[in-house]
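Quick one, probably user error.
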């Protein structure tokens, strides 16, 4: 295995980035860093960052590059990220990708993994997603625990995220096309882009990712 593995994981909202990052984090013993999770935690804690970004997230808008860059640079310098990290949901704009490159150097990112899923499928996944407010476990709206509103794992409240409401989903997908899709070109130009088909079994997506990493000498 490579001594360091810094992966940027791209894909539309609902493509399965979080699920695959959980798998990869265990398999390669590197932290799963999700800017979305960090921002949601800040909102829950009612920190000053949380207060600044709460309405931005609820509307499905993007948080400013400056805030994200500060958040991610700080996180990447923590000791658990010394052998690499899985960057889930970051980078999201060309400005963020350039700032990350400036921070880590031209060889700082080992691969950009794009999990490709058709738009119609992510709309279906996001609109039926329910999440435990306490532990983050996700459910579909057809799961009994989601209907009763209680998490099977921890007993917390299972809710629909504000940004999984139809208007916010439309906004997030529009911003993905406008701001984030251009990153595929950014990383491709650097020879760092690999795309896997996310419209398959979770386990098959994971094994396709492992194969890509092995091919590139990263696993
Ligand atoms: P996610 O869970 O990755 O879908 O992120 C949830 C929300 O957090 C997004 O809709 C944005 O409002 C915000 N967010 C997360 N990561 C970023 C980022 N890298 N740049 C800007 N906004 C972000």
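Nope, works fine. Designed sequence:
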């Amino acid at each position: 295995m490579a001594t360091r593995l810094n992966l940027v994981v791209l894909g539309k909202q609902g493509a399965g980035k979080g699920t695959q990052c959980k798998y990869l984090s265990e398999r390669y013993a590197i932290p799963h860093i999700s800017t979305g999770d960090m921002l949601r935690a800040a909102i829950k804690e009612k920190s000053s960052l949380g207060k600044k970004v709460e309405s931005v997230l609820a509307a499905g808008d993007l948080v400013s590059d400056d805030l994200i860059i500060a958040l991610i640079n700080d996180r990447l310098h923590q000791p658990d990220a010394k052998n690499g990290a899985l960057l889930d949901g970051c980078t999201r704009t060309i400005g963020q990708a350039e700032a990350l490159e400036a921070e880590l150097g031209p060889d700082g990112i080992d691969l950009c993994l794009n999990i490709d899923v058709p738009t119609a499928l992510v709309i279906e996944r996001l609109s039926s997603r329910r999440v435990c407010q306490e532990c983050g476990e996700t459910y579909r709206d057809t799961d009994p625990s989601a209907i009763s509103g209680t998490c099977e794992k921890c007993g917390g409240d299972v809710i629909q995220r504000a940004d999984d409401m139809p208007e916010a989903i439309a906004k997030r997908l529009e911003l993905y096309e406008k701001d984030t899709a251009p990153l595929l070109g950014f990383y491709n130009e650097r020879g760092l882009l690999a795309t896997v088909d996310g419209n398959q079994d979770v386990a098959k997506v994971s094994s396709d990712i492992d194969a890509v990493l092995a091919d590139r000498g990263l696993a």
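The mean pLDDT is 93.
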